Amino acid sequence: MKFFKKMVRKFEDEMAAAAFAQAGEMETAKEILKESDKQNLHNDISRGESDRLHLPLNPAENHN
Known about the structure:
The chain has helices spanning 2-22, 26-46, 50-53. By secondary structure, the protein is mostly helical. The model has no long low-confidence stretch (mean pLDDT 78).
């Protein structure tokens, strides 16, 4: 159920961004998408899903 809610929220954010982009408000559209992605990433990490995302919880642990 959480997956469905997350997908619906993402869709809503994308549609809001599309509406602003169509109205010529490109910066607002970009900001909506940026915040949406940031919120989704934060939620995934806080639930301990960083392994699935292949992201370290501590960026200093990234040994490229």
